[in-house]
Amino acid sequence: MTAISSSGGIMARRLSARLWQVAVTLFGLLLLTFFIGRVMPVDPVLSIVGPDADQSTYQQVYRQLGFDKPLWHQFIIWLGGLAQGDLGNALLTGRPVAQDILRVFPATLELATLAIVIGAGLGIPLGVMAAARRNGALDYVVRIISLAGYSTPIFWVGMMGLLVFYAWLGWVGGAGRLDMSLDGAVPTRSGLIVLDTLLAGNMEVLRSALNHLILPAALLGFHSLAYISRMTRSFMLAQLSQEFIITARVKGLTERQVIWNHAFRNILVQLLTVVALAYGSLLEGAVLIETVFSWPGFGSWLTGSLLLGDMNAVMGGVLVVGIIFVTLNLLSDMLYQLFDPRTRS
């Protein structure tokens, strides 16, 4: 009983320390973003009233937005709204920021999830096989793919993908999430178009959704594949040069057992971080791909809000991004303890 209570106390202290770190990190991120946003050379009042408005109208809107107050006071007011679940209204749409985020985020979630499945599902085995056949033909092919995927501008790849697979070959759908004729054909429940069409049982809309989703997801997946395969190869090469690998081979284990049961298991913890960071970057918003494919996602929404000087929307978006990365880090830590018993002590 004493050991159990001691272990529970340690876990409670760890959890409270981690939550405190998360709170401080998010507060610092929001504080920095708020003050940087206020000194940006973009006037959100002009975005509302227009350049032809008279001075009295400008001053009225200026005061309504609270810009006449000191910066610290504006930040305190925003934090007070946040404590009540109010992120303010977006200048671009006039709706609550939380509503806008809930509207655009599922599109990015759907795109990013399929992309990371493609990137990790192909990148990890390719990286492992490249390391196992170092300086062989497969290794050179994987290294070339990684270099190409990592260095080629994603917006150019997106435009070339549309040109080849949509305009020339007609294998995939074009821009947007659905054909225009099918827009609104199924009720929006989750915001995930594939899931909503499955729930509605509309196979025509499902085919259209998949046709529009597969190309941008594959291109983002290729970009993630380049990073994940490169890191996997590096981790595996470091493991394959260790003495325990030589010992395993001397014992008569097959090469497959040596690679997957011994070397690969030792890099799982490192790969969790790599995949989590790649997924977090995709969830943050693949702005260029979303722009090229007219994908109404979180990244394009946040970029448009930033260019407009809409700090309510930007602050809400930054908060979401911070929560995404903090959550992925916490999940990574939990999985560390699952795969690596040494981290449990």
UniProtKB/TrEMBL annotation:
The keyword Transcription does not apply. The chain crosses the membrane at residues 19-37, 111-132, 144-169, 209-228, 267-293, 313-336. The keyword Transmembrane applies. The lineage of its organism: Bacteria, Pseudomonadati, Pseudomonadota, Gammaproteobacteria, Enterobacterales. GO terms for cellular component: plasma membrane. InterPro entries: BPD_transp_1_N, MetI-like, MetI-like_sf. Belongs to the binding-protein-dependent transport system permease family. It comes from the Bacteria. Residues 105-336 form the ABC transmembrane type-1 domain. It is found in: Cell inner membrane; Cell membrane. It comes from Jejubacter calystegiae. This is ABC transporter permease. It is a multi-pass membrane protein. GO terms for molecular function: dipeptide transmembrane transporter activity. Keywords: Cell inner membrane, Cell membrane, Membrane, Transmembrane, Transmembrane helix, Transport. Its main location: membrane.
